[in-house]
Amino acid sequence: MTTASAQAAATPGRRVAHWRRARRLPGWVLGSVGVIVALAAWIALSQLLAGGGGVINRLPGPAAVLRELVAYASRDLLTDVAASLRVFGIGWSLGVFAATGIGLLLGRLPALGHTFLPIIEAIRPVSSIAWVPLSVVWFGFGLTGKVFLVGLAVFLVVIVYAVDGCTRIPDDLARTASMLGMSAWQRFRALILPGTLAEVLIGSRVALMAGWGTVIVAELVAADSGLGAHLIAVQQSYDVPAVMATMACFGITGFVMNGVFSLVEARLMPWRPRASGRAT
Amino acid sequence: MNAADRPVDHPGAAAMPGGELAFDRICHEYATQAGCIEVLRGVSFDVSPGSVTCVVGPSGCGKSTLLGLAAGLITPASGEVRWDRAPVTPGTNLHLGMAFQQPGLFPWMTVHENVAIGLRTRGADRATARRVADEFIATVGLADFRHAYPSQLSGGMAQRVGIARALALRPRLLLMDEPFAAVDAFTRLKLQQEFKALLALHRPTVLFVTHDVSEAILLGDRIVVMSQRPATVLREIPVSREDRNRASAAYARKLAETLECLGVPSDGGSE
Amino acid sequence: MSGASSRGRAAVLRNRLVLPTLGAIVLLAAWQATVTLYSLPIVVLPPPWQVATTLVDLFGTAAFWRSVGVSLYEFAGGYVAGVLLGVVVGLAMGESRTIRAVATPVVESLRFIVPFAWIPLTVLWFGTSLVGKIVLVAYAVFFVMTVATLRAVQNVEPTLTRVATMLGMARWQRAVRVHLRAAAPSIASGARAAAALGWIAVVAAEYIGSSAGLGFMITNAAMSLATGVVIAGMIVIGLIGAAVSALIAWLSRTRLAHR
Predict the structure, then answer these.
(1) C181 touches chain B (CB under 8 A)
(2) Are C19 and C65 in a shared domain?
(3) Which residue of A151, A201, C74, C199 pairs with C133 in a disulfide if CB–CB is 3.0 to 4.6 A?
(4) How confident is the model over B134-146, as a mean pLDDT?
């Protein structure tokens, strides 16, 4: 069965009844329709609730949020984003670095691995966000605490990839190395290290979202600088449009980071299939 | 859907005789990211009632598309597919049964449930479905495995269940999509023999797609040879009883003729 | 890894039991050592034994169980709603190319605003009440389940779809009885991930804007520097998360296994 026929036969009912019609509407048209419908629903809902009905008071329409966003952009937006990105950058780098080093250690020395990996496995499900109060006790509300939390979140994600990368050397590569008579150090440099780094790269991309989410929680609690602090500030002044605008900023920054990282990943590892990680 | 298409529901009853399937100047294409791929161009042939027609051709030439068209799963870009002199209706058609390359058994159902489900969705009551399912499971020799799950079956056994499921529907048209391609050679030979025996009991019209020419000679009353994509009918080759004897010269001639048509020289090429 | 030889079995025992226990002991010893060597005050890092007794004390307190109950209630409500909605939407997106094309941009853009970023907004809208947390959890779980269901349904073996149509199933029948059922194990593992996210969303929401619940209890303890309670609370968070995950895994293994 060719892929085309499999694809065609996979949705037979739809294909038979609508295939000519659906063929005329490319994905982006339908997608735009979706966005327009969502925006229209948003506007309608905000009009509906403006009369004071319902639980959700104060739902500003998209126009109000956009206005706030522009106003914010002309004021502190860049400073706040920079502050948040700084926290994220340091924490993420430390987390990746630590995970790579410790991962290599635990992966290549099975005795150490069997001893300590189960502990890490036990702690992993406990998101680093649970550590927020403890970090407040230990580090107060400053940069150190936030970096610690982000680093921990990233570490817990990337460590698995690092360990996998240095233990799962494909058999045929290992045999080739033996046949070529490589020394342990050569093996490490040519075989283990690149494999580990490749996995770490993938893992650190997955950790992007985990780390970025941790940043905002840390900043919501610490509330001294960054997007999270701004979010708390506008929340406390009941400025709903500003709250939504800040949330949008957070999302957009995350989206851009994700995109940049995808590009970097594609350049560094062109042989890898693009792990979009999302179904469309 | 008329009364003639309903499954007859008492055991041992023969199905209504097979009808005539006709492809009339079928052209079809697929839209992919690369653009439009024309897969069939002007394909026309008939399958007479109760006969077995085997379609052979290079892979990707659209043989499976023919089955989709016959089943009403696909609407042709141009041309017409006719069953019993009437155009095939799009969507579900209850006069036919189909067996696929992968057995396609529902992994969460037992063998028995898998065979019975088709009868249930087509309107049979529980008792009848159970009875008919048991009958056909026994026919393919898997009575002991009625309550096994597909994961516990070998490839050949799973394929048998798929065939039992299709036959239990008492189809007047049986569409087979390289059903024996995914099993090993020995199992394939066995399954071919069993299938021939099953066809003798119920005589549906059969359209059988295969890449194995010797299988086509063994099973078919006629072989339709398709060209590369965009596919047309290169030749229709009748098969007689003598041709099926693998030890006979007639078989060798028929095999050679079909292979030549496919572009494979029968003397093994240059040495 | 079945060791037919006794050496094999000894290795398994060593790797799976002895060494990890050793690791735990090393960790606890290091913890205790840090406390003693640096003479850390209790408000910074209480010794392991103290945390253990604090934990036991908590288990005897009614207020603790009330807090846990509040958090679990918020989680459960939001989780069930999120799973049901997410599976329905995910299935619809999987079945209909139109729905998928229309819904995808909206889903994909909202995905980047992580649930935690919604916390201040839910506080503005719902105050510190339970409803806000339930909505938050439902939101977080919904997105995970939608994507998981969509992907699982798209990965159903195409032959099964053709079989279902051939057997005469109507489209909705095929969607629910075949696609959903075949995708169920994959959806269940998505449900486990969603549970982890939902649970931590509750905790985070309680850290930031709440007047009850486990997270609130821990934040209070942090403010009054009752570090032992903080650590004990973190352990409880982890235990509950593990229990929920194990429950879902058990349910999917016994009810959904394809055998």
Answers:
(1) yes
(2) no
(3) C74
(4) 90
Question: How far is C203 from C192, CA to CA, in rounded Å?
Answer: 17
Three-state SS across C244-255?
Answer: HHHHHHHHHHHH
Let me know whether C15 and C72 are in one domain.
no
The mean pLDDT value for A164-173 works out to 79
Residue B2 pLDDT: 41
Contact B39 A13 (CB under 8 A): no
CATH class of A66-268: mainly alpha
- C104 closest CB neighbour out of A7, A118, A280: A280
Considering the domain architecture, whether residues C80 and C166 belong to the same structural domain is answered as: yes
One domain for residues C28 and C146: no
C196: chain A residues, CB-CB within 8 Å: 125, 127
Contact A133 C222 (CB under 8 A): yes
pLDDT over 70 for what percent of chain A? Answer: 84
Which residue range is the domain that position C11 belongs to? 6-39
ipTM of the complex in this document: 0.84
Query: In chain B, which residues touch C (CB < 8 A)?
Result: 71, 73, 91-92, 94, 96-98, 100-104, 106-108, 117-118, 121-122, 149, 151-152, 165-166, 169
Name the pLDDT band for C182 (thresholds 50, 70, 90): very high
Total domains present in chain C: 2
The structural domains of chain B, ordered by start, are 18-95+171-266 (3.40.50.300), 106-170 (no CATH)
* A window 1-30, beta carbon within 8 A of C: 6-7, 9-14, 22, 25, 27, 30
A93 touches chain C (CB under 8 A): no
Residues of C in contact with B98 (CB under 8 A): 162-163, 166
Do C135 and C202 fall into the same domain?
Answer: yes
Structural element, H or E, at residue B25: strand B21-32
Kindly tell me if the per-residue pLDDT of B28 is higher than 70.
Answer: yes
- Give the torsion sign (CA, C249, C253, C258, C259): positive
**Cβ atoms within 10 Å of B134's Cβ, excluding its own:** 17
User: Does position B217 have pLDDT exceeding 80, yes or no?
Assistant: yes
